[in-house]
Amino acid sequence: MSIESAIRVCASSSVTAGAAFAAWQSVEDRLQRIGIDNDRRRAALIGQCAHESARFRTRFENLNYSAAGLWKIFRRHFSSEAETHQFARQPEKIANRVYRNRMGNGDTASGDGWRYRGRGYLQLTGKDNYRRYGEHIGEDLVNNPDRAADPDVCWLIAAEYLARTHRSGRSLLEWADADDVLMVTKGINGGTHGLADREVQTGRAFAALTGEVSTAEWQALLLNAGFNPGPIDGLMGDKTRAAREAAAAHFGVQGDALLQVLRDIT
Questions:
Q1: What are the structural domain ranges in the chain?
Q2: What is the full DSSP assignment across the chain?
Q3: Which of 90, 110, 198, 252 is at 20 to 30 A from 242, Cα to Cα?
C-alpha cells in the first residue's frame, strides 16, 4: 500500500494519476512539515483534492457560464437577468465582473478577477489569497498566478489550507485525524456539497494507504448503488448491515468482490 496507489484509485486516469503522484513526490518532505504526517491526513488531502479537481483532471476554474448559469450562481453581481446575456460564455469578462472589488481584487478594469481566478486542486481565488498562500509556501503567486495551477504547488496550497483552516475549534487536519469527512468538507466547501463522493474518495485513499476499508466508504458506495445504509456516519449499524446484505444478494458476491463491484459503479 502506498501514496501512489492512493492517488491512482482516486484519479480519473493513469495520466492524471502519474502527474499528481510525481508532484507529490517532489514536495513530500514539505507536505510532511506542513502536517500531512499520518494516513488519515494523507487520505483527507488526497480524497478532498480528488473530488474538488474532478479526480485530478481540473486545475483551473471553469467560468464558461451561460446566461442562465450566471443568473443562478452569481445573481447578486448583476443588475438584472437581462444583463447576464452580455457576459455569457465570456470567461474573462465574467471573472472580472463577479470577482471585482473583493478578496483583495481591484475593480473590473484592473483585470484582477481573471488574473486571480480559481486555480489548483482546491481553487485558490482572489489576490489576497494568492498573496497569503504564496507567502506560506514561499512562492510569488501574485506576480506568477499560473504557478498556483502547477501540481506541486496545488498539493502545497491544499495542505496549507487544511492545516490553517479551523472549524469548531479544530483545524481541518485535526478533523481528518478524527475521520470526520463531514467537518473537513464543511471547512472546504462551507456546506456539504458532494459529501458522498468526498467520503468515497477519502475512503479509497485510506484503504490504499492502509489496507483498511472504512465504514463510511461502504455507506457511500452502497448509497450510490441504490442500497440505503442510513446516514453516512462511519458507524456499522443495522441499516448499513442490511444494505450490505441486500447488495451482496443482488450482485451475488460478498467481501472484497462486492466492494469492487460497488466501486466500479461509482
A1: 3-49+159-265, 67-155
A2: --HHHHHHHHSSSHHHHHHHHHHHHHHHHHHHHHT--SHHHHHHHHHHHHHHTTTTT--B------HHHHHHHSGGGSS-HHHHTTTTT-HHHHHHHHTTTSTT---GGGTHHHHT--BTTTTB-SHHHHHHHHHHHT--TTT-GGGGGSHHHHHHHHHHHHHH-EETTEEHHHHHHTT-HHHHHHHHHSS-TTHHHHHHHHHHHHHHHHS---HHHHHHHHHHTT---SS-SS---HHHHHHHHHHHHHHT--HHHHHHHHHHH-
A3: 198
Angle at 206 between CA 198 and CA 259, to 5 degrees: 80
pLDDT 10s digits, 97-107: 999 999 999 99
Q: Does residue 229 contact residue 187 with C-beta atoms inside 8 Å?
A: no
**Beta-bridge partners for 170:** 167
User: Mean of the pLDDT values across residues 192-208?
Assistant: 91
Under a CB-based contact definition with an 8 Å cutoff, are residues 107 and 80 in contact?
Answer: no
pTM of the model as a whole: 0.85
C-alpha span between 15 and 8 (Å, rounded): 9
CA atoms of 68 and 59, how far apart (whole Å): 24
Candidates 201, 132, 193; CA nearest to 160 is 132
Q: Cα separation of 29 and 177, whole Å?
A: 20
* pLDDT tens column, 12-37: 999 999 999 999 999 999 999 999 99
Return the CA Rg of the chain. Answer: 20
